[in-house]
């Protein structure tokens, strides 16, 4: 397995330098009126001032509900989406200013695994062809391609004799393994995993989660793990960033964040996840958010969560509420043990 | 926990229901003998892998299967046989006495009418009230199920609403019909967790206010743990375990149930605990081999399991039944006693329940 082992294991000098650094990332989409030449009528504030770092060999979980901007963030990281402002640095190199050939080489170092394995695999290609495609495009492993692909298949737990089969002959979990093998082909340092197990049954999902865990340890990979399922994220992530309406509202070490969430949104999110234990589940206290996610074309002033925030509604006085309306809370350390973007942050164990 | 389960009158009795579909590949045996009894006010959770026949069972009850479907067995609603009943008879029950809530609320909503109109229609169908009264009642119902600003939302069209609000509108319509049974098939699967919590509350409210019994189908073991009185676990078209919710979660007696419980990542478990997948995948429902369909994935399977499909039999107390030749041996057994934390994909013949050499394995084997 040596040929696909990497040297960037945690603890090596490389581990001190982030592999990926995102700084003040902003992504806006224009909203156009009707018709082909419709004029721009507004702006979707999809991602707003998002900053984070990922170190070699670690997993950052990016979580939040639909429309919070997590997928847009991951696409901007991969250069698939243009940033309106801000920077994405891969090993200190700014993606935006790279000449095309450098960009091409850098692209090999970060790969993506999508949610729907069927939609991302070409049904007309055999599994061998699917996994070998990036090798062909980049002209690598010409001599030992068959051997190397077989090795990749074994690495992800597939039978290497099944290379001549087509995607539809595999189960959902196996297809996701094919997607992972393909992503590993160019020996990337970073994998962006966008809801990689959401489409799978739990009994199958567990095997893929374990596989990602093993690959990370063996190959020293860094993961940006984007998901809405907090129980999965808690299982795989070293650190977590929680997004709401385009902004990171809280971030910290996984264990710490789940034990002491300090943002009312994180608290609500964690308390809403059902636990598969009837007695515990029925005794839990839920922190309920009211209403619905506001439109990202017209996000609330000040704190974007205030319109649904149970603390804002139930516990803050007029002056405090005015502050939430007027002043955008910075993502900062506020004595809660980790950065949180709430003027009145207060760690509350909800588990 | 399940007082309703033992006291109420039986409203729905399903007996040895089978459903098969003739296809080009052969006969798909989607449901192979489902039986359950549902009492007034009781909530029965149905769990199982994708394709295990949860939806087809419910569609059979609702009479919504395509004509090609072959159905045998019996479905009795308050004593009335539904299998073989003519369209007109079913239409009277469907939507009113038995309400169905689907994953996609647009399945039930009419895109060209306001939601208020659609709730009011249901009210007018069952009550002798004026249109103005029906509208007022519609606003009340929308408010009851937690639709924000119900007074304004009543005039919205479905496309103007979010998925969570649409689902609550569907629940309000179901309430207006005063059903005896609500069948909810993955009602919150497409929703975000905070919205899921709101919709589950709405369902609970609807079920309690109407006194209906409920069948809650979901792949989410956490949702069932919080809602159901009793649980039915399905595998390859058959119930493999049924019992009170606590029996199923704390005293499971079928390896598949144990496997499901071991594979879910849970917020209350230690983070470092590896997940325990079930190796392999469910069988094809065309030409199912003899024997227990879980055999190829089962860590305790014996020769007998390949030959004989075990019946669903009582484990200890009457309501708890399991379909496994070795269920008596599973007393006190927990998932990690049976399953390993492998990352491999399929079982290999010579090392049952263990990944083969050379494949990625559990943490202990890593360099
Ligand atoms: N009209 C049909 N013709 C042929 N096969 C069908 C038809 N409808 C359903 N099936 C098959 O019946 C089996 C049971 O399907 P069903 O939809 O009940 O599963 P389920 O348990 O609800 O799964 P999920 O969790 O994915 O919703 C599947 O193998 C499915 O492909
Ligand atoms: Mg279904």
UniProtKB/TrEMBL annotation, chain A:
<dbReference type="Pfam" id="PF00005">
    <property type="entry name" value="ABC_tran"/>
</dbReference>
<dbReference type="InterPro" id="IPR050319">
    <property type="entry name" value="ABC_transp_ATP-bind"/>
</dbReference>
<dbReference type="Pfam" id="PF08352">
    <property type="entry name" value="oligo_HPY"/>
</dbReference>
<dbReference type="GO" id="GO:0005524">
    <property type="term" value="F:ATP binding"/>
</dbReference>
<dbReference type="InterPro" id="IPR013563">
    <property type="entry name" value="Oligopep_ABC_C"/>
</dbReference>
<keyword id="KW-0547">Nucleotide-binding</keyword>
<dbReference type="GO" id="GO:0015833">
    <property type="term" value="P:peptide transport"/>
</dbReference>
<dbReference type="InterPro" id="IPR017871">
    <property type="entry name" value="ABC_transporter-like_CS"/>
</dbReference>
<dbReference type="InterPro" id="IPR003593">
    <property type="entry name" value="AAA+_ATPase"/>
</dbReference>
<feature type="domain" description="ABC transporter">
    <location>
        <begin position="31"/>
        <end position="270"/>
    </location>
</feature>
<protein>
    <submittedName>
        <fullName>ABC transporter ATP-binding protein</fullName>
    </submittedName>
</protein>
<keyword id="KW-0067">ATP-binding</keyword>
<comment type="similarity">
    <text>Belongs to the ABC transporter superfamily.</text>
</comment>
<dbReference type="InterPro" id="IPR027417">
    <property type="entry name" value="P-loop_NTPase"/>
</dbReference>
<keyword id="KW-0813">Transport</keyword>
<dbReference type="GO" id="GO:0016887">
    <property type="term" value="F:ATP hydrolysis activity"/>
</dbReference>
<dbReference type="InterPro" id="IPR003439">
    <property type="entry name" value="ABC_transporter-like_ATP-bd"/>
</dbReference>
<dbReference type="GO" id="GO:0055085">
    <property type="term" value="P:transmembrane transport"/>
</dbReference>
Automatic annotation (TrEMBL), chain B:
<keyword id="KW-0067">ATP-binding</keyword>
<dbReference type="InterPro" id="IPR027417">
    <property type="entry name" value="P-loop_NTPase"/>
</dbReference>
<dbReference type="Pfam" id="PF08352">
    <property type="entry name" value="oligo_HPY"/>
</dbReference>
<dbReference type="InterPro" id="IPR003593">
    <property type="entry name" value="AAA+_ATPase"/>
</dbReference>
<keyword id="KW-0813">Transport</keyword>
<keyword id="KW-1003">Cell membrane</keyword>
<dbReference type="GO" id="GO:0016887">
    <property type="term" value="F:ATP hydrolysis activity"/>
</dbReference>
<comment type="similarity">
    <text>Belongs to the ABC transporter superfamily.</text>
</comment>
<keyword id="KW-0472">Membrane</keyword>
<keyword id="KW-0547">Nucleotide-binding</keyword>
<dbReference type="InterPro" id="IPR003439">
    <property type="entry name" value="ABC_transporter-like_ATP-bd"/>
</dbReference>
<feature type="domain" description="ABC transporter">
    <location>
        <begin position="12"/>
        <end position="261"/>
    </location>
</feature>
<dbReference type="InterPro" id="IPR050388">
    <property type="entry name" value="ABC_Ni/Peptide_Import"/>
</dbReference>
<dbReference type="Pfam" id="PF00005">
    <property type="entry name" value="ABC_tran"/>
</dbReference>
<protein>
    <recommendedName>
        <fullName>ABC transporter domain-containing protein</fullName>
    </recommendedName>
</protein>
<feature type="region of interest" description="Disordered">
    <location>
        <begin position="343"/>
        <end position="367"/>
    </location>
</feature>
<dbReference type="GO" id="GO:0005886">
    <property type="term" value="C:plasma membrane"/>
</dbReference>
<dbReference type="GO" id="GO:0015833">
    <property type="term" value="P:peptide transport"/>
</dbReference>
<dbReference type="InterPro" id="IPR013563">
    <property type="entry name" value="Oligopep_ABC_C"/>
</dbReference>
<dbReference type="GO" id="GO:0005524">
    <property type="term" value="F:ATP binding"/>
</dbReference>
């Amino acid at each position: 397995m040596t040929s696909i082992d990497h040297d960037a294991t945690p603890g090596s000098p490389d581990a001190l330098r982030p592999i990926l650094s995102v700084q003040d990332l902003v992504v806006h989409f224009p909203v156009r009126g009707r018709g082909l030449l419709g004029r721009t009528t507004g702006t979707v504030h999809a991602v707003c001032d998002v900053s984070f770092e990922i170190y070699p060999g670690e997993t950052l979980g990016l979580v939040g509900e639909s429309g919070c901007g997590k997928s847009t963030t991951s696409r901007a990281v991969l250069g698939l989406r243009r940033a309106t402002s801000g920077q994405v640095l891969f090993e200190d190199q700014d993606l935006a200013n790279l000449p095309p050939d450098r960009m091409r080489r850098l692209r090999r170092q970060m790969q993506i695994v999508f949610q729907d394995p069927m939609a991302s695999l070409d049904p007309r290609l055999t599994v061998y062809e699917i996994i070998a495609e990036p090798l062909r495009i980049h002209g690598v492993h010409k001599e030992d391609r068959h051997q190397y692909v077989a090795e990749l298949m074994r690495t992800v737990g597939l039978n290497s004799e099944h290379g001549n089969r087509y995607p539809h002959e595999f189960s959902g979990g196996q297809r996701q393994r094919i997607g992972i093998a393909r992503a590993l082909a160019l020996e990337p340092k970073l994998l962006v995993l966008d809801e990689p197990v959401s489409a799978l049954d739990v009994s199958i999902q567990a095997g893929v989660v374990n596989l990602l865990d093993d690959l990370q340890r063996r190959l020293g990979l860094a993961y940006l793990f984007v998901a809405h399922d907090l129980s999965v994220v808690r299982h795989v992530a070293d650190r977590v960033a929680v997004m709401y309406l385009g902004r990171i509202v809280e971030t910290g070490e996984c264990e710490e964040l789940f034990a002491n969430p300090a943002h009312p949104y994180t608290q609500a999110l964690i308390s809403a996840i059902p636990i598969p234990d009837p007695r515990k589940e029925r005794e839990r206290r839920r922190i309920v958010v009211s209403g619905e996610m506001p439109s990202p074309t017209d996000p609330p002033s000040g704190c974007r969560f205030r319109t649904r925030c149970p603390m804002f509604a139930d516990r803050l006085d007029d002056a405090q509420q005015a502050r939430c309306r007027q002043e955008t809370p910075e993502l900062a350390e506020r004595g809660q043990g980790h950065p949180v973007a709430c003027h009145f942050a207060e760690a509350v164990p909800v588990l | 926990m399940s007082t309703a389960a033992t006291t109420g009158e039986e409203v729905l009795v399903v007996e040895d229901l089978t459903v098969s579909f003739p296809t080009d590949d052969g006969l798909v045996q989607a449901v192979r003998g489902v039986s359950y009894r549902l009492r007034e006010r009781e909530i029965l959770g149905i769990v199982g892998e994708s394709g295990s026949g949860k939806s087809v069972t419910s569609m059979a009850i609702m009479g919504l299967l395509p004509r090609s479907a072959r159905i045998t067995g019996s479905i009795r609603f308050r004593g009335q046989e539904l299998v073989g009943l003519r369209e007109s008879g079913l239409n009277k029950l469907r939507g009113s006495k038995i309400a169905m809530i689907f994953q996609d609320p647009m399945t039930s909503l009419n895109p060209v009418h306001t939601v208020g109109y659609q709730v009011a229609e249901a009210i007018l169908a069952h009550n002798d009230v004026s249109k103005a009264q029906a509208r007022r009642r519609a606003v009340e119902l929308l408010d009851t199920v937690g639709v924000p600003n119900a007074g304004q939302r009543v005039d919205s069209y479905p496309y103007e609403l979010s998925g969570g609000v649409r689902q609550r509108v569907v629940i309000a319509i179901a309430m207006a019909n005063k059903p005896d049974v609500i069948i909810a098939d993955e009602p919150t699967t497409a929703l975000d967790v905070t919205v899921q919590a709101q919709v589950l509350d709405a369902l609970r409210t609807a079920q309690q206010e109407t006194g209906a019994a409920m069948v809650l189908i979901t792949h989410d073991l956490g949702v069932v743990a919080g809602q159901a009185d009793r649980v039915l676990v399905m595998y390859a078209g058959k119930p493999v375990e049924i019992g009170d919710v606590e029996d199923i979660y704390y005293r499971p007696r079928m390896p598949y149930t144990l496997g499901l419980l071991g594979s879910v990542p849970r917020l209350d478990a230690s983070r470092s605990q590896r997940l325990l997948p079930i190796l392999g995948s469910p069988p094809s429902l065309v030409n199912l081999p003899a024997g227990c369909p879980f055999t190829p994935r089962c860590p305790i399977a014996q020769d007998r399991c390949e030959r004989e499909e075990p019946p669903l039999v009582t484990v200890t107390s009457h309501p708890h039944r399991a379909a496994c030749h070795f269920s008596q041996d599973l007393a006190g057994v927990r998932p990690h006693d049976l399953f390993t934390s492998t990352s491999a994909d399929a079982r290999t013949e010579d090392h049952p329940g263990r990944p083969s050499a050379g494949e990625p394995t559990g943490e202990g084997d890593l360099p």
